[in-house]
Amino acid sequence: MTPSSERVILRIHFHHTGDEELYHQLLTVLDGISPRWQALPPSAADLDITGSLKYFDRSPHDLAQVLALRTAALYGTQVTIGGGNSRLLAAMAADATPPGGITIVDAAPEAVAGFLRPRPVHVLPGIGPATANLLTRHGLHTIGALADTPLLTLQRLLGKANGREIAARASGHDPRPVTPGAAPASVTARHDFPRDELDPAQHRRALIGLAEQTGAELRGTREAAGALTLTVRYADRSHTSRTRTLPEATSHSAALAQAAYRLYETFGLQRARVRGITLRASGLRPAAAAHHQLTLDPSDDKARRIEKAADAARARFGPDAVFPASLAPSP
Protein backbone atom coordinates (compact mmCIF):
# COMPACT_ATOMS: atom_id res chain seq x y z
CA MET A 1 0.00 0.00 0.00
CA THR A 2 1.30 3.48 -0.87
CA PRO A 3 1.83 5.62 2.26
CA SER A 4 -0.94 8.13 2.77
CA SER A 5 1.62 10.96 2.87
CA GLU A 6 2.73 10.16 -0.71
CA ARG A 7 0.76 12.01 -3.33
CA VAL A 8 -0.89 9.79 -5.96
CA ILE A 9 -2.51 11.26 -9.06
CA LEU A 10 -4.28 9.52 -11.91
CA ARG A 11 -4.62 10.82 -15.46
CA ILE A 12 -7.77 9.41 -17.07
CA HIS A 13 -8.38 9.43 -20.81
CA PHE A 14 -12.05 8.73 -21.65
CA HIS A 15 -12.54 6.95 -24.98
CA HIS A 16 -15.79 8.62 -25.92
CA THR A 17 -17.04 10.05 -29.20
CA GLY A 18 -16.46 13.72 -28.42
CA ASP A 19 -19.97 14.21 -27.01
CA GLU A 20 -19.54 17.08 -24.52
CA GLU A 21 -22.63 16.08 -22.50
CA LEU A 22 -21.29 12.54 -22.11
CA TYR A 23 -17.92 13.96 -21.03
CA HIS A 24 -19.57 15.90 -18.21
CA GLN A 25 -21.42 12.74 -17.15
CA LEU A 26 -18.19 10.75 -17.12
CA LEU A 27 -16.65 13.32 -14.80
CA THR A 28 -19.31 12.55 -12.20
CA VAL A 29 -17.88 9.02 -11.89
CA LEU A 30 -14.70 10.56 -10.49
CA ASP A 31 -16.65 11.99 -7.54
CA GLY A 32 -17.31 8.45 -6.36
CA ILE A 33 -13.55 7.93 -5.97
CA SER A 34 -12.30 11.35 -4.86
CA PRO A 35 -13.67 14.90 -4.88
CA ARG A 36 -10.26 16.21 -5.99
CA TRP A 37 -10.49 16.06 -9.76
CA GLN A 38 -9.68 18.53 -12.49
CA ALA A 39 -11.34 18.42 -15.89
CA LEU A 40 -9.08 18.50 -18.95
CA PRO A 41 -11.48 18.89 -21.88
CA PRO A 42 -12.28 17.45 -24.28
CA SER A 43 -11.62 13.90 -23.04
CA ALA A 44 -9.34 13.71 -20.00
CA ALA A 45 -9.14 14.52 -16.28
CA ASP A 46 -6.67 14.39 -13.40
CA LEU A 47 -7.75 12.74 -10.15
CA ASP A 48 -5.91 13.06 -6.83
CA ILE A 49 -6.56 9.80 -4.96
CA THR A 50 -4.10 10.40 -2.10
CA GLY A 51 -6.83 10.58 0.53
CA SER A 52 -8.91 7.82 -1.08
CA LEU A 53 -6.31 5.06 -0.76
CA LYS A 54 -6.81 4.64 2.99
CA TYR A 55 -10.60 5.07 2.73
CA PHE A 56 -10.95 2.29 0.12
CA ASP A 57 -8.01 0.28 1.52
CA ARG A 58 -6.78 -0.39 -2.00
CA SER A 59 -3.59 0.14 -3.97
CA PRO A 60 -3.48 2.87 -6.66
CA HIS A 61 -3.72 0.19 -9.37
CA ASP A 62 -6.74 -1.42 -7.72
CA LEU A 63 -8.48 1.93 -7.32
CA ALA A 64 -7.82 2.71 -10.98
CA GLN A 65 -9.44 -0.61 -11.86
CA VAL A 66 -12.50 0.32 -9.80
CA LEU A 67 -12.77 3.57 -11.74
CA ALA A 68 -12.41 1.78 -15.07
CA LEU A 69 -15.10 -0.76 -14.15
CA ARG A 70 -17.55 1.92 -12.99
CA THR A 71 -17.05 3.96 -16.16
CA ALA A 72 -17.64 0.91 -18.33
CA ALA A 73 -20.66 -0.28 -16.33
CA LEU A 74 -22.41 3.10 -16.11
CA TYR A 75 -21.64 4.60 -19.53
CA GLY A 76 -20.14 1.82 -21.64
CA THR A 77 -16.97 3.88 -22.02
CA GLN A 78 -13.43 2.56 -21.97
CA VAL A 79 -10.67 4.49 -20.19
CA THR A 80 -6.89 4.55 -20.25
CA ILE A 81 -5.28 5.44 -16.91
CA GLY A 82 -1.80 6.46 -15.88
CA GLY A 83 -0.67 7.22 -12.35
CA GLY A 84 2.26 8.63 -10.41
CA ASN A 85 3.24 11.03 -7.67
CA SER A 86 2.77 14.08 -9.92
CA ARG A 87 0.51 15.25 -12.71
CA LEU A 88 3.49 15.03 -15.07
CA LEU A 89 4.16 11.36 -14.34
CA ALA A 90 0.47 10.50 -14.45
CA ALA A 91 0.08 12.14 -17.87
CA MET A 92 3.18 10.43 -19.28
CA ALA A 93 2.14 7.05 -17.87
CA ALA A 94 -1.28 7.41 -19.50
CA ASP A 95 0.28 8.35 -22.84
CA ALA A 96 2.55 5.29 -22.66
CA THR A 97 -0.35 2.93 -21.91
CA PRO A 98 -2.23 0.94 -24.57
CA PRO A 99 -5.92 1.90 -24.90
CA GLY A 100 -7.93 0.47 -22.03
CA GLY A 101 -4.86 -0.24 -19.91
CA ILE A 102 -3.52 1.01 -16.58
CA THR A 103 0.06 2.03 -15.77
CA ILE A 104 1.06 3.22 -12.29
CA VAL A 105 4.60 4.53 -11.74
CA ASP A 106 5.78 3.81 -8.20
CA ALA A 107 6.93 6.84 -6.18
CA ALA A 108 10.35 5.36 -5.35
CA PRO A 109 13.08 7.52 -6.97
CA GLU A 110 14.56 4.53 -8.78
CA ALA A 111 11.15 3.64 -10.23
CA VAL A 112 10.56 7.21 -11.41
CA ALA A 113 14.02 7.32 -13.00
CA GLY A 114 13.51 3.89 -14.56
CA PHE A 115 10.30 5.10 -16.19
CA LEU A 116 11.53 8.50 -17.36
CA ARG A 117 15.18 8.12 -18.36
CA PRO A 118 14.90 5.75 -21.36
CA ARG A 119 12.10 7.71 -23.01
CA PRO A 120 12.71 9.98 -26.00
CA VAL A 121 12.77 13.70 -25.26
CA HIS A 122 9.75 14.45 -27.44
CA VAL A 123 7.35 12.64 -25.07
CA LEU A 124 8.17 14.99 -22.18
CA PRO A 125 5.24 17.44 -21.77
CA GLY A 126 6.23 20.90 -22.90
CA ILE A 127 8.58 19.70 -25.63
CA GLY A 128 7.10 20.09 -29.10
CA PRO A 129 8.61 18.88 -32.39
CA ALA A 130 10.72 22.02 -32.91
CA THR A 131 12.27 21.83 -29.42
CA ALA A 132 12.78 18.07 -29.76
CA ASN A 133 14.64 18.62 -33.04
CA LEU A 134 16.85 21.23 -31.38
CA LEU A 135 17.68 18.93 -28.48
CA THR A 136 18.41 15.88 -30.64
CA ARG A 137 20.69 17.97 -32.87
CA HIS A 138 22.75 18.58 -29.73
CA GLY A 139 22.85 14.88 -28.87
CA LEU A 140 20.08 14.90 -26.27
CA HIS A 141 17.89 12.03 -27.42
CA THR A 142 16.49 10.72 -24.12
CA ILE A 143 14.97 12.23 -21.01
CA GLY A 144 17.86 10.71 -19.04
CA ALA A 145 20.38 12.62 -21.16
CA LEU A 146 18.30 15.75 -20.63
CA ALA A 147 18.29 15.24 -16.85
CA ASP A 148 22.09 14.80 -16.83
CA THR A 149 22.71 18.01 -18.78
CA PRO A 150 23.90 21.00 -16.70
CA LEU A 151 21.17 23.58 -16.14
CA LEU A 152 23.23 26.40 -17.68
CA THR A 153 23.61 24.39 -20.88
CA LEU A 154 19.86 23.84 -21.16
CA GLN A 155 19.22 27.52 -20.48
CA ARG A 156 21.58 28.50 -23.29
CA LEU A 157 19.68 26.19 -25.63
CA LEU A 158 16.11 26.87 -24.51
CA GLY A 159 16.16 30.17 -22.64
CA LYS A 160 16.43 30.77 -18.92
CA ALA A 161 12.85 30.05 -17.85
CA ASN A 162 12.20 27.22 -20.32
CA GLY A 163 15.52 25.57 -19.54
CA ARG A 164 14.79 25.55 -15.81
CA GLU A 165 11.29 24.15 -16.33
CA ILE A 166 12.41 21.41 -18.74
CA ALA A 167 15.23 20.40 -16.41
CA ALA A 168 12.76 20.00 -13.53
CA ARG A 169 10.39 17.96 -15.65
CA ALA A 170 13.20 15.71 -16.89
CA SER A 171 13.85 14.80 -13.24
CA GLY A 172 10.16 14.12 -12.63
CA HIS A 173 9.48 17.24 -10.56
CA ASP A 174 6.02 18.74 -10.98
CA PRO A 175 4.44 20.42 -7.93
CA ARG A 176 1.20 21.40 -9.67
CA PRO A 177 -1.84 20.43 -7.59
CA VAL A 178 -5.06 18.98 -8.91
CA THR A 179 -7.44 21.93 -8.77
CA PRO A 180 -11.04 20.80 -8.18
CA GLY A 181 -13.74 22.38 -10.27
CA ALA A 182 -16.36 21.70 -12.88
CA ALA A 183 -15.37 21.44 -16.50
CA PRO A 184 -15.33 24.89 -18.07
CA ALA A 185 -17.87 25.63 -20.74
CA SER A 186 -16.35 24.97 -24.13
CA VAL A 187 -17.04 23.82 -27.67
CA THR A 188 -14.81 21.12 -29.12
CA ALA A 189 -14.31 19.86 -32.67
CA ARG A 190 -12.03 16.98 -33.57
CA HIS A 191 -10.57 15.68 -36.84
CA ASP A 192 -8.96 12.24 -37.10
CA PHE A 193 -6.89 11.47 -40.19
CA PRO A 194 -7.40 8.03 -41.80
CA ARG A 195 -3.60 7.55 -41.73
CA ASP A 196 -0.53 9.34 -40.41
CA GLU A 197 -0.67 12.71 -42.18
CA LEU A 198 2.59 14.52 -42.97
CA ASP A 199 1.23 17.12 -45.42
CA PRO A 200 0.83 20.60 -43.87
CA ALA A 201 -1.74 21.41 -46.55
CA GLN A 202 -3.97 18.64 -45.22
CA HIS A 203 -3.42 19.88 -41.67
CA ARG A 204 -4.57 23.37 -42.71
CA ARG A 205 -7.56 21.88 -44.57
CA ALA A 206 -8.56 20.14 -41.33
CA LEU A 207 -8.22 23.43 -39.45
CA ILE A 208 -10.66 25.10 -41.86
CA GLY A 209 -13.21 22.37 -41.23
CA LEU A 210 -12.75 22.54 -37.46
CA ALA A 211 -13.12 26.33 -37.46
CA GLU A 212 -16.28 26.08 -39.57
CA GLN A 213 -17.77 23.46 -37.25
CA THR A 214 -16.82 25.40 -34.12
CA GLY A 215 -18.10 28.72 -35.47
CA ALA A 216 -21.42 27.24 -36.57
CA GLU A 217 -21.99 25.67 -33.15
CA LEU A 218 -21.13 28.92 -31.35
CA ARG A 219 -23.46 30.93 -33.58
CA GLY A 220 -26.18 28.35 -33.04
CA THR A 221 -26.03 28.91 -29.29
CA ARG A 222 -25.42 32.67 -29.71
CA GLU A 223 -22.10 32.50 -27.92
CA ALA A 224 -18.62 33.84 -28.66
CA ALA A 225 -15.28 32.30 -27.72
CA GLY A 226 -12.58 34.21 -25.88
CA ALA A 227 -9.80 31.64 -26.36
CA LEU A 228 -8.79 28.73 -28.56
CA THR A 229 -6.81 25.61 -27.72
CA LEU A 230 -5.26 23.56 -30.51
CA THR A 231 -4.14 20.00 -29.77
CA VAL A 232 -2.11 17.98 -32.28
CA ARG A 233 -1.90 14.22 -31.74
CA TYR A 234 1.00 12.28 -33.23
CA ALA A 235 1.46 8.72 -34.47
CA ASP A 236 3.27 7.68 -31.27
CA ARG A 237 0.15 8.76 -29.29
CA SER A 238 1.90 11.78 -27.78
CA HIS A 239 0.33 15.20 -28.20
CA THR A 240 1.09 18.91 -28.00
CA SER A 241 -1.36 21.68 -27.03
CA ARG A 242 -1.25 25.44 -27.40
CA THR A 243 -3.77 28.00 -26.10
CA ARG A 244 -4.25 31.56 -27.27
CA THR A 245 -6.55 34.27 -25.94
CA LEU A 246 -8.32 35.92 -28.86
CA PRO A 247 -8.01 39.69 -29.43
CA GLU A 248 -11.79 39.81 -29.22
CA ALA A 249 -14.40 37.17 -28.45
CA THR A 250 -15.85 35.83 -31.69
CA SER A 251 -17.96 33.16 -33.34
CA HIS A 252 -16.85 34.20 -36.85
CA SER A 253 -15.43 31.10 -38.59
CA ALA A 254 -12.85 33.06 -40.58
CA ALA A 255 -11.49 34.69 -37.42
CA LEU A 256 -11.39 31.33 -35.66
CA ALA A 257 -9.56 29.79 -38.64
CA GLN A 258 -6.95 32.56 -38.67
CA ALA A 259 -6.34 32.12 -34.93
CA ALA A 260 -6.06 28.35 -35.45
CA TYR A 261 -3.50 28.90 -38.24
CA ARG A 262 -1.39 31.08 -35.97
CA LEU A 263 -1.52 28.46 -33.22
CA TYR A 264 -0.60 25.74 -35.72
CA GLU A 265 2.45 27.70 -36.87
CA THR A 266 3.81 27.80 -33.29
CA PHE A 267 4.16 24.00 -33.31
CA GLY A 268 6.96 24.14 -35.88
CA LEU A 269 5.83 20.84 -37.41
CA GLN A 270 8.30 19.51 -39.94
CA ARG A 271 7.36 16.17 -41.47
CA ALA A 272 5.53 15.29 -38.26
CA ARG A 273 3.29 12.23 -38.46
CA VAL A 274 0.01 13.77 -37.33
CA ARG A 275 -2.80 11.43 -36.37
CA GLY A 276 -5.44 14.01 -35.43
CA ILE A 277 -6.20 17.63 -34.56
CA THR A 278 -8.62 19.00 -31.95
CA LEU A 279 -9.82 22.60 -31.70
CA ARG A 280 -11.46 23.77 -28.46
CA ALA A 281 -13.17 27.13 -28.02
CA SER A 282 -13.35 28.29 -24.40
CA GLY A 283 -14.02 31.45 -22.43
CA LEU A 284 -17.56 31.44 -23.79
CA ARG A 285 -19.80 34.46 -23.34
CA PRO A 286 -23.07 35.68 -24.85
CA ALA A 287 -22.43 36.88 -28.39
CA ALA A 288 -24.51 40.00 -27.73
CA ALA A 289 -22.02 41.03 -25.05
CA ALA A 290 -18.96 40.40 -27.22
CA HIS A 291 -17.21 43.48 -28.58
CA HIS A 292 -16.48 43.50 -32.33
CA GLN A 293 -13.77 45.87 -33.52
CA LEU A 294 -15.15 47.76 -36.50
CA THR A 295 -13.05 47.74 -39.68
CA LEU A 296 -13.17 49.60 -42.98
CA ASP A 297 -12.69 46.37 -44.89
CA PRO A 298 -15.83 45.66 -46.98
CA SER A 299 -14.75 42.04 -47.45
CA ASP A 300 -15.14 41.40 -43.72
CA ASP A 301 -18.72 42.64 -43.73
CA LYS A 302 -19.45 40.60 -46.85
CA ALA A 303 -17.99 37.45 -45.29
CA ARG A 304 -20.22 37.86 -42.24
CA ARG A 305 -23.33 38.27 -44.43
CA ILE A 306 -22.41 35.15 -46.39
CA GLU A 307 -21.85 33.30 -43.13
CA LYS A 308 -25.29 34.31 -41.88
CA ALA A 309 -26.89 33.07 -45.11
CA ALA A 310 -24.94 29.80 -44.91
CA ASP A 311 -26.12 29.24 -41.32
CA ALA A 312 -29.72 29.74 -42.46
CA ALA A 313 -29.23 27.20 -45.25
CA ARG A 314 -27.73 24.64 -42.86
CA ALA A 315 -30.58 25.14 -40.40
CA ARG A 316 -33.07 24.40 -43.16
CA PHE A 317 -31.32 21.72 -45.23
CA GLY A 318 -28.83 20.12 -42.85
CA PRO A 319 -25.23 20.70 -41.70
CA ASP A 320 -23.72 19.62 -45.04
CA ALA A 321 -25.84 21.95 -47.17
CA VAL A 322 -23.12 24.61 -47.36
CA PHE A 323 -19.38 24.35 -46.81
CA PRO A 324 -16.22 26.16 -47.97
CA ALA A 325 -14.97 25.29 -51.46
CA SER A 326 -11.62 24.30 -49.94
CA LEU A 327 -13.39 21.42 -48.16
CA ALA A 328 -15.00 20.04 -51.31
CA PRO A 329 -13.95 16.44 -52.04
CA SER A 330 -11.31 16.00 -54.71
CA PRO A 331 -12.67 14.97 -58.13
TrEMBL record:
<dbReference type="InterPro" id="IPR043128">
    <property type="entry name" value="Rev_trsase/Diguanyl_cyclase"/>
</dbReference>
<keyword id="KW-0227">DNA damage</keyword>
<dbReference type="InterPro" id="IPR017961">
    <property type="entry name" value="DNA_pol_Y-fam_little_finger"/>
</dbReference>
<comment type="function">
    <text>Poorly processive, error-prone DNA polymerase involved in untargeted mutagenesis. Copies undamaged DNA at stalled replication forks, which arise in vivo from mismatched or misaligned primer ends. These misaligned primers can be extended by PolIV. Exhibits no 3'-5' exonuclease (proofreading) activity. May be involved in translesional synthesis, in conjunction with the beta clamp from PolIII.</text>
</comment>
<dbReference type="InterPro" id="IPR043502">
    <property type="entry name" value="DNA/RNA_pol_sf"/>
</dbReference>
<dbReference type="InterPro" id="IPR036775">
    <property type="entry name" value="DNA_pol_Y-fam_lit_finger_sf"/>
</dbReference>
<dbReference type="Pfam" id="PF11799">
    <property type="entry name" value="IMS_C"/>
</dbReference>
<protein>
    <recommendedName>
        <fullName>UmuC domain-containing protein</fullName>
    </recommendedName>
</protein>
<feature type="domain" description="UmuC">
    <location>
        <begin position="61"/>
        <end position="128"/>
    </location>
</feature>
<dbReference type="InterPro" id="IPR050356">
    <property type="entry name" value="SulA_CellDiv_inhibitor"/>
</dbReference>
<dbReference type="InterPro" id="IPR001126">
    <property type="entry name" value="UmuC"/>
</dbReference>
<comment type="similarity">
    <text>Belongs to the DNA polymerase type-Y family.</text>
</comment>
